[in-house]
């Protein structure tokens, strides 16, 4: 299901090139609009006679040449963080741009070049990915390229390679992928793990002796701009045994397959919400190697992001615009209260208090729950595959959030299939 169409504009430009222009560089100018996230250019050459025309391709912005592929490519893409090889990613500054051509070989009768310029605008939309994964840069078996290719095949948008106490992966990310590679490292101690997201080199030394050292490392990561996640806090083997009052942004309530450790984390998080905390919940597969149960993007974290960039995704998480599904194709839940969505706080003066749940990709037998600071508001069994709409009055509630539970035959029981972050009420 599509959870956010991208807005785009397409301009077609035609340039006739005469034989007299052979061996010259030509420009096909166009205006770069405001608020563009991605530029895609393609061209087609129609020769008017023999020999066949040969036209090279490149582009300039208002300040410099941004890329050149000669005759090697018939199209290219430039984004904020990634671009086709031969082209420079970065800001797509509004103003006068031009597609560049080298009229390398032109027949006597000339040729016609048709250029298509497609601008994709910054469009807030749901993106999905995995915020906890390992590679050969620590104890994982997958290369960075293999991880990116698997995530692409799953239709995901982003991943964070959080290798244990390592940062080399952040300097070796593959560029020729559509996956946004979020810089990350898993701060791994003998008494708990924490992910640092968003910066390539958050701390200089991971070794700690006690709580004071842990506090200092978290402070260093914070100073360097990292977002801090408490990982699998109620795991059987490596729980968070340091002080829970340490500086952190988010908590990983769902790590790998949904088992008792995740159920404990889910209940702990709910208790935090009831106490009045507004704590963003995320998930991650913690994939290390090929495994029948621990797989990429299982669970899958969905983020309503302003742009498909590192900053856009992390900002969306910071706003709590997050839900988690057991897999990339798990049931999607849209929770809203008027114009407010998951993670938002509805102001005290807002009269509307009706929360609307729209769930898609459900299966017969699923259980859809609406929970609040007062407990379970609704618990509905799905009778047929498809979609479901629920509503509840949130008057007097601190928050409302949603869960979907599903019978998984491999486990022989009902397990969590989807969980949303709450909508809060002031």
From TrEMBL:
GO terms for molecular function: 5'-3' DNA exonuclease activity; 5'-3' RNA exonuclease activity. Residues 129-191 form the Polymerase/histidinol phosphatase N-terminal domain. InterPro entries: PHP_domain, Pol/His_phosphatase_N, Pol/histidinol_Pase-like. The lineage of its organism: Bacteria, Bacillati, Bacillota, Bacilli, Bacillales. This is Phosphoesterase. It comes from the Bacteria.
């Amino acid at each position: 299901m599509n959870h956010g169409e991208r807005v785009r504009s397409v301009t077609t430009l035609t340039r006739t090139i005469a034989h007299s222009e052979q061996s010259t560089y030509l420009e096909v100018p166009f205006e770069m609009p405001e608020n563009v996230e991605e530029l895609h250019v393609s061209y087609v050459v129609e020769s008017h006679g023999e020999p066949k025309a040969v036209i090279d391709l490149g582009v300039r912005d208002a300040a410099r040449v941004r890329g050149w592929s000669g005759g090697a490519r018939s199209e290219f893409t430039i984004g904020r963080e990634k671009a086709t090889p031969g082209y420079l990613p970065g800001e797509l500054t509004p103003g006068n741009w031009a597609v560049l051509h080298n009229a390398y070989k032109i027949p006597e009768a000339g040729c016609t070049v048709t250029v298509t310029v497609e601008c994709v605008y910054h469009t807030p939309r749901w993106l999905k990915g995995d915020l906890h994964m390992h590679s050969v840069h620590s104890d994982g078996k997958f290369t960075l390229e293999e991880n990116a290719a698997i995530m692409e095949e799953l239709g995901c948008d982003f991943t964070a390679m959080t290798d244990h106490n390592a940062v080399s992966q952040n300097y070796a990310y593959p560029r020729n992928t559509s996956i946004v590679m979020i810089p990350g490292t898993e701060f791994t101690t003998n008494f708990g793990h924490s992910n640092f997201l968003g910066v390539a080199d958050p701390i200089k030394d991971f070794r700690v002796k006690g709580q004071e050292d842990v506090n200092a490392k978290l402070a260093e990561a914070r100073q360097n701009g990292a977002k801090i996640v408490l990982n699998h806090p109620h795991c059987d083997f490596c729980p968070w045994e340091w002080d829970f009052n340490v500086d952190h942004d988010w908590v990983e309530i769902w790590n790998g397959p949904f088992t008792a450790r995740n159920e404990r984390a889910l209940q702990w998080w709910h208790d935090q919400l009831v106490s009045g905390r507004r704590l963003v919940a995320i998930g991650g597969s913690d994939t290390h190697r090929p495994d029948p149960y621990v797989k990429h993007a299982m669970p899958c974290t969905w983020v309503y992001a302003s742009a498909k960039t590192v900053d856009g995704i992390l900002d969306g998480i910071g706003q709590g615009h997050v839900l988690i599904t057991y897999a990339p194709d798990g049931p999607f839940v849209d929770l809203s209260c008027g114009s407010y969505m998951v993670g938002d706080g509805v102001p005290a003066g807002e009269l509307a208090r009706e929360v609307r749940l729209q769930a898609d990709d459900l299966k017969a037998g699923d259980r859809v729950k609406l929970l609040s600071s007062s407990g379970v508001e609704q618990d509905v069994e799905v009778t047929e595959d498809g979609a479901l709409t629920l509503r509840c009055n949130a008057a007097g509630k601190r928050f409302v959030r949603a869960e979907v539970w599903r019978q998984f035959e491999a486990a022989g029981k009902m397990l969590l299939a989807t969980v949303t972050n709450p909508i809060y009420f002031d």
